[in-house]
Amino acid sequence: MTDDSAIYTGKATPDAAADRGWLLGHFKSPGDPRHSEDVEIKWGVHPKGEERDRWVTGERRTALQVLVSGRFRLEFPGRTVVLAEQGDYVVWGRGVDHSWYAEEDSVVLTVRWPSLPGYRADEPSVPERQ
């Protein structure tokens, strides 16, 4: 028999709204099936014209971003990547600075690893978090 506390069901958009888009990671309460110190998963819903306030610098994780819908542009030093068709994706590693811009209303799924405590954009004294 399965312990029901080990299973979580939800809806990405409302669940993501509760934690700046993040569905899974170290920031969820221990004991919550969505708690992980290995990986973070974000459901990003971005209206057309939304952009990242500041570049992420000093990135300490690897990331994968997949376009679910819309058109989404990522900026890297010396390179621009546009996710234009459903399923387009980009992967970048540790130390790669980046920013982004929603060219159309967009939904993107981001997976990052590892999940690092204290790594948030709203805490300017530490490296930024997307």
Features:
disordered C terminus, mainly beta, 130 residues, 8 strands
Topology (elements, then pairings):
Elements: H1 12-17, E1 22-24, E2 40-46, E3 62-69, E4 72-76, E5 79-83, E6 89-92, E7 99-102, E8 106-113
Antiparallel strand pairs: 1-2, 2-8, 3-6, 3-8, 4-5, 4-7
Can you offer a commentary on this structure?
It is built from one helix and eight strands; from the N terminus they run αββββββββ. By secondary structure, the protein is mainly beta. The protein starts with 11 loop residues before the first helix and ends in a 17-residue tail after the last strand. The C terminus is likely disordered.
| Secondary-structure-derived class | mainly beta
> Measured on Cα atoms, how large is the radius of gyration?
15 Å
Q: Let me know the number of strands.
A: 8
Figure out the total of helices: 1
Estimated share of beta-strand residues: 25-35%
Shape: globular
Instruction: Encode the helix/strand succession as letters.
Output: HEEEEEEEE
Rounded average pLDDT = 88
The first-to-last residue Cα distance is: 39 Å
Q: Largest sheet, order of strands side by side?
A: 1-2-8-3-6
Helix content: under 10%
Q: Summarize the biggest pleated sheet.
A: 5 strands, antiparallel
Low-confidence stretches: 121-130
